[in-house]
Design brief:
TIM Barrel, 10 helices, alpha/beta, 8-stranded parallel sheet, two-stranded antiparallel sheet
């Protein structure tokens, strides 16, 4: 099966070194209401993103997955222009974000009158089959998110819709988790809807250093995203590395993918997080610092290549 990129379908063998969770552009719902915020032009955003993408390309990157869902300021035309100008493949997403930071008010209101699971499923399937709006750009993955320690009724509806859209289209799923929780429950809902769990990445699993949690998920056949490297204010990289090296040591290298969850541009005002709190939260961090640390710990080049090349390719090929 080919992989939908923002410039059209490609064979999985063409993906090469892949970062599986980065964001060119994010806008929290309501950003449009901030009339005081400086507005970046489309050209400014594209220029910033192309410069960063070319730096990554020099380090070997060939494909980037931007799993921005519909309700977080997604702009697939900007992704397409960045891909065209940089020569790096970009895979975009359909789907919806978690309740507290997504489009929940709209769907909760509609839920008083209609079946919102059916409506969400229709939205996701139509984007995958026909493209986003009138762009013709077709998502290659479906995104869903849950909050920490619980799944709200709204989020459960989105999980069911994402699962049904995946079963209907064959397009795989990537998830957001908070604090390394609720991965088991996400998989339970997907399995109940008939999803092949080999088509699922449980994202931000590096938010937990609990190996029991990790192994429970991996034993069900899914992939885990160790995809927030450099985001030290949420979880120290030392704990991410300790868990990752342990899982690699007992043979799970075929089910792990890597990334940073970086945000390159913001709609509205950027988050006022001092740079000194996240000095290594940059999309080059894995190539420049994490891979050398894995090698120093005795992780083989073959296992590193599995996480950056083989696993993304197999994930999309199996779908």
């Amino acid at each position: 099966m080919n992989v939908n990129t923002v410039l059209g379908p490609i064979a999985p063998e063409e993906l090469g070194i892949t970062l599986m969770h980065e964001h060119l552009l994010i806008g929290w719902p309501g950003w449009e209401a901030d009339g005081v915020a400086a507005r970046q032009s489309k050209e400014d955003i594209v220029t910033i993103c192309v410069e960063r993408m070319l730096e990554l390309k020099e380090l070997g990157l060939r494909t980037l997955l931007d799993p921005c869902p519909i309700d977080l300021g997604r702009d697939v035309e900007i992704m397409a222009e960045v891909s065209q100008r940089s020569g790096v493949n970009i895979i975009c997403a359909t789907g919806l974000y978690k309740e507290d930071l997504g489009a929940a008010p709209y769907f909760r209101f509609r839920g008083q009158f209609v079946d919102i699971v059916a409506e969400m499923t229709e939205i996701f399937v139509q984007e995958i089959r026909d493209g986003v709006g009138d762009t013709g750009i077709r998502p290659g993955i479906i995104k869903v998110a849950t909050q920490a320690h619980r799944i709200s009724p709204y989020e459960e509806n989105v999980l069911h819709a994402v699962a049904r859209a995946s079963v209907q289209t064959g397009v795989p799923i990537t998830t957001h988790t908070d604090e390394g929780t609720m991965g088991r429950e996400q998989l339970d809902i997907f399995a109940a809807e008939g999803v092949d769990l080999r088509r699922v990445i449980v994202g931000h699993s590096c938010g937990s250093a609990d190996l029991r949690y990790h192994v429970d998920l991996l034993d069900r056949g899914c992939y885990l995203g160790f995809d927030r490297f450099g985001l030290e204010i949420i979880q120290p990289d030392r704990l991410r590395l300790a868990a990752l090296i342990g899982l690699l040591g007992v043979g799970f290298q075929q089910q792990l993918v890597l990334s940073h969850d970086c945000v390159w541009c913001w709609r509205g005002r950027p988050l006022p997080v001092p740079a000194e709190l996240t000095p290594e939260w940059d999309a080059t961090h894995i190539f420049k610092r994490i891979v050398p640390k894995l090698e120093a710990a005795g992780v083989s080049k073959a296992k590193i290549a599995a996480m950056l090349v083989d696993n993304p390719r197999r994930f999309f090929a199996d779908a």
